């Protein structure tokens, strides 16, 4: 077969521009099954995620989507567009917050702001990019925010 070959990848360090916002598609509708599976797989027995009767007596009146799942999906939604095959390492998360609950049946929409970037002083061919991930439900309510530092290859330097 002849023709051009295109491989899906994220961005090289040099392609990131501070101030750019990437909207990630599609959104992800969070189901009850997703929440129960994620909570049990991660050994999180929090009744707020698993016990409908108890949760009905709590301030939100129902079970909520596990906030760690919200965070995982927010970050995961960015991978194909930003870091697939170009990341060296995830360096850390800061300023994680969940200002509004996510409910079963809500759809999580994610976007990422490039906050800053700099070349690594100790790792030639690599740079550190700071990303701010934001998740919103279908009504536009912010359900999660997190800053993440990632080590990214410069184009041509990846091994």
From TrEMBL:
Name assigned to this protein: Acyl dehydratase
Family assignment from sequence similarity: Belongs to the enoyl-CoA hydratase/isomerase family.
Annotated Pfam families: MaoC_dehydratas
Superkingdom as given in the UniProt entry: Bacteria
Taxonomic classification: Bacteria, Bacillati, Actinomycetota, Actinomycetes, Micrococcales
Annotated ranges, domain MaoC-like: 18-135
